[in-house]
Design goal:
By secondary structure, this protein is of the alpha+beta class. The protein is built from 16 helices and 25 strands.
Length: 467
């Protein structure tokens, strides 16, 4: 998906920028970039981080950076930041975006005499395209509104200018943008976990479509937030770091509550509950309280070399990586009935391999409990999976098997406890060789997040959304 960070201070911002961007590393695994501005001079570095970590890639670049303001990004899409000279002035841009109508927009912009320089494997750079839409405006606000009106998908933006940072949250607020205040300084980030250790306190949560201008002393609203919000529910389910908050709602509290609700009503017998690291841990702790059974680490993550998510583009390598980073605890599993909590099931290949390992290490029964509903619809708004086809989703393959058509009766399959829903879940359970399988209903997901249903994007579960 991606995450960004920016800061502006009365003194050098380089250290804060370096560590602030690093605190967004769990949001992406492909590319990263930083840019600072020093008296009109923009200094930039971009690196591939697919086989390394942000800090190790950028440490050697730090002496070349200078200035009191800067922005950076962890990106699963483009090489960023992009630096632009235009009638609006010189600026750098980073985005967290998924733009579904790039070919149409590119064609329109080329017909107007624009050109594109930043291509990777023949694909237009989204951030460069966004910058072209921005400079069609008479000012930055008009330009960003042009982005909101023209793209299909989502886009949150940071602009580094010669007189500050401009932050713009996606039109429907699908991704978060938060401001942190420090002593004589401000920061802006996708993730609040980047604030505390750098001396910032969360000061303000940008609303959907809101635009602000940030200096070291203050921030000024340039565009009021819109009335409709559709923040991605999967941020709480999977992507968000446990200590982060979106719309004032903590990630780990939500996961705990999802597990608590399921544990209270689950009627199976089990010796203990364990979380699939990392995002299943919070749910399993809640489940243990609700079910009143012990929490134990029946499977652990090998953190010395797998401290964060890593998703290679090749499916065979993804399956190998998933296997390598999780180690079952044979001493705890032998002859035990165990509940395992996980965030979601996307393709099912990783979970199937994990389940087989659990049995191989002596587990008597393996009960899977999933914090969210089944993923029925591919995401149109964020890049939270690498799926290229509907049939990469295990739900769609199952519906194809049951119906002969993976698009048939989707609303029925998305309705918790409907006959077709139960048939689908039972089929997935058998395919993955699980003793029992249960998903949290969408009502529990929404209740655990703590926001009104209409403010949360649940498209991947029930097909609903604002376009």
């Amino acid at each position: 998906m991606g995450g960004f960070f920016g800061t502006i201070k009365k003194k050098s911002c380089v250290a804060d920028l370096f560590y602030g961007v690093d605190y967004n590393s769990h949001m992406g695994t492909k590319r990263a970039g930083m840019v600072t501005q020093d008296n009109g001079n923009f200094i930039r570095a971009i690196h591939n981080i697919e086989n390394s970590y942000f800090r190790s890639k950028f440490e050697d670049d730090l002496p070349s950076f200078s200035g009191c303001s800067g922005i950076g990004v962890i990106s699963d899409t483009d090489a960023q930041p992009i630096i632009i000279s235009s009638h609006l002035g010189k600026f750098a841009i980073v985005t967290v975006a998924k733009i579904n109508n790039i070919p149409e927009l590119e064609k329109e912009l080329l017909a107007k005499g624009n050109h594109f320089c930043e291509h990777s494997n023949g694909i237009t750079n989204q951030s460069e395209l966004v910058s072209m839409l921005i400079i069609e405006g008479k000012n930055f606000v008009e330009g960003i509104e042009n982005v909101y009106n023209r793209i299909k998908g989502s886009c949150s933006i940071l602009l580094l200018t010669e007189d500050g940072i401009i932050a713009a949250r996606d039109k429907y607020g699908r991704t978060p943008v938060l401001l942190g205040k420090g002593k004589n300084c401000y920061a802006v980030s996708s993730e609040t976990c980047s604030f505390p250790n750098l001396g910032y306190e969360t000061e303000y949560n940008l609303g959907p479509g809101e635009i602000v201008h940030i200096t070291a002393d203050t921030f000024t609203q340039l565009r009021k937030p819109g009335e409709k919000m559709q923040i991605c529910s999967f941020l709480w389910v999977y992507y968000g770091y446990p200590v982060c908050e979106y719309e004032g709602k903590n990630v780990d509290t939500m996961r705990f509550d999802c597990g608590l609700e399921m544990g209270k009503t689950d009627d199976i017998e089990a010796d203990f509950v364990s979380g699939i690291p990392d995002s299943g841990v919070g749910m399993s702790l809640g489940y243990a309280v609700g079910k009143q059974i012990p929490y134990q680490r029946g499977i652990v993550k090998y953190t010395p070399t797998w401290p964060r998510s890593f998703t290679p583009p090749n499916q065979e390598m993804r399956e190998l990586v998933a296997k390598m980073k999780l180690i079952p605890n044979k001493s705890l599993l032998k002859d035990k009935k165990v509940v395992f909590c996980d965030d979601s099931i996307v393709r099912g290949t990783q979970l199937r391999d994990n389940v087989n390992d659990l049995y191989r290490y002596g587990a008597k029964e393996v009960h899977m409990r999933i914090s969210c509903p089944p993923l029925i619809y591919p995401c149109k708004f964020l890049n939270f999976t690498a799926s290229k086809s509907d049939l990469e989703l295990i739900t769609r393959r199952t519906i194809q098997k049951l119906e002969g058509n993976h698009d048939k009766d989707l609303s029925e399959y998305a309705t918790t406890n409907s006959p077709k829903y139960c048939r689908m879940v039972d089929s997935i359970c058998k395919e993955l060789n699980i003793t029992t399988l249960k998903f949290n209903p969408i009502e529990t997901l929404v209740k655990s997040i703590g926001l009104p249903k209409e403010c949360i994007c649940t498209h991947c579960f029930d097909g609903s959304s604002y376009e």
